[in-house]
Amino acid sequence: MPPEAGASAHFRALESLYAAAPINNMFDSRLEIVEAGLARISFAIEPGHYHAGGAAHGTSYFKMLDDAAFYACNSLVTDRFLLTTAFNLLFTRPLKAGPVVAEGRWISGQRRVFVGEARLIDADGDEAARGTGTFMRSSIALAGLPGYSD
User: Domain Thioesterase spans what residues (predicted)?
Assistant: First the structure.
């Protein structure tokens, strides 16, 4: 099988793994691994995600930024599930109900620790937040996870 086919199969399996995670039942979202090191999550902010001030709670920002950076990095690892070890985020504007895209990119690392960054882009094309995370290889085999090998 050519390397592109292998990579493509890995990317589709990661997308399936994302969709199978129970937490994602709480969000109208879809992961796309665009290429090695680049992940995009399209999702919708709904009023149920709001804090008392009438905009999206920070947990929504963190979840999507972390997932986008994580999957960008895990797209480079075909045998093991990565784990988030740290994540820093910067809020730049409030998100209201509507479509949002989280764009994640691998920045560095290819052995044990990976660094990725992500940003949230609202429906107007404006950046609402950005974050940087570190991710390390775990002992969890991707092939054994529900969704990955289905």
Answer: 53-128
